[in-house]
Amino acid sequence: MKIFKKRGEMTHFQILSEISKNEPNLKQKDLAERLGITIQAVSENLKTLIEEGYVSSEDGRSPYTITQKGISKVKKDAIALRKYSDETLEIMNYYKSIWPAIATEPIKKGDKVGLYMENGLLYANHEKHDAQAEAITDAESGFDVALNQLTGLINVELGQVLIIALPTIKQGGSLKANFKLIDEIYNETYTEWGLKSLDKIAVVGTISHVVAKQLGIPVDIEFAASQSCVSCSRKGLNTLLLTVGNMSKNIVKTLEDNDVKYNIVDAKL
Question: What is the pTM of this model?
Answer without folding.
Answer: 0.58
